[in-house]
Amino acid sequence: MSFWDMLTSHTKVAGGSLPLEQITLPDAASSATTSSHSKCTWSSEERQLFKTASFITTCARKLEVGSLVKSNACWLFYKFFSIVQLEHYDEYVVAMTCLFLASKIEETPVKIRDVINVAHRTLHPREPPLQIDQTYSSLVDTLVNFELLICRMLNFKLTYDYPHKYLLHYLKSLTEWMPAQHETEPYQRIAWSILNDCFSTKICIRNRPDQLALAACYLALESCDIKVYMQEHAEKPWWKVFIEDIRLSDISQLVAQILEMYENETAVTSFTVP
């Protein structure tokens, strides 16, 4: 079950998550969920980029490369198209290249033929497998050339400060502080799902990694209706313990972006697994 399904469903999951309309959110984020119901606010370019990022996720899952490789590939993909115009490059070739490059960056390299075969099978499920012929050789050459192009366009800055490590720290700290009855709550799994979903859009390149991780944690706690233990007696809010310079308005803006992403996702047909 996806995070969006958990939010909008009235069926309780383990621990009892709340439907969207019952979640207490900061004011800006709350208004964002009611202002654009069932109406996509993305441009045609943003829709296409989202579909292609979903394609990366699908291929990464089939290649079993893990969430970090998938996240790095999506980050490279969005960074590249923040520099160049979409109409100048084939987005699926760029996506394949980013996935291949990310696997090497994360030191879990996959063979280029596996990336090509999985991508071809995903895009063309009813066609026979690719033969090792001139077309296949051209695809290999194209990916190799695009790999160099992406590296140059990004000035060889191919890694960044992942939000995953921050989320791991936040969740571990909160879990140790929470009463035992919350151990069965699904908020940790929900937080990871939210964070991973953020790499399907430009949210992953527009925000500070530590703040993005905190917003995912905040939204997960709210979706499960969990209040941080002894918060009412604390000298400062729990989120300032993790990030001293963050304000509630910052969290509000991030949560609003995340909820807008899920609202738009329901209105856009993403890339689906055949």
Explained architecture:
There is one protein chain. The chain has 274 residues and is mostly helical. The chain has 13 helices and no strands. α4 packs across α5.
Sum up the structure in keywords.
mainly alpha; disordered N terminus; 13 helices; 61% helix; 274 residues
Secondary-structure topology with pairs:
Layout: H1 3-8, H2 27-35, H3 44-63, H4 67-81, H5 91-105, H6 112-123, H7 134-153, H8 163-177, H9 187-197, H10 203-206, H11 209-223, H12 238-242, H13 248-267
Helix pairs in contact: 2-13, 3-4, 3-5, 3-6, 4-5, 5-7, 8-9, 8-11, 9-11, 11-13
Task: Provide a compact summary of the structure.
By secondary structure, the chain is mainly alpha-helical. It has 13 helices and no strands.
The helix/strand class is mainly alpha
Q: How many H/I helices?
A: 13
SSE arrangement, N to C = HHHHHHHHHHHHH
Largest sheet: none
In helices, the fraction of residues equals 55-70%
Give the strand content.
under 5%
Shape by Cα distribution: elongated
Topology, number of strands: 0
Give the overall pLDDT as a whole number.
Answer: 83
Report how far apart the termini are: 18 Å
Q: Which residues form runs of ≥5 with pLDDT under 50?
A: 1-23, 31-37
Tell me which oligomeric state these chains represent.
single chain
The Cα radius of gyration reads: 20 Å
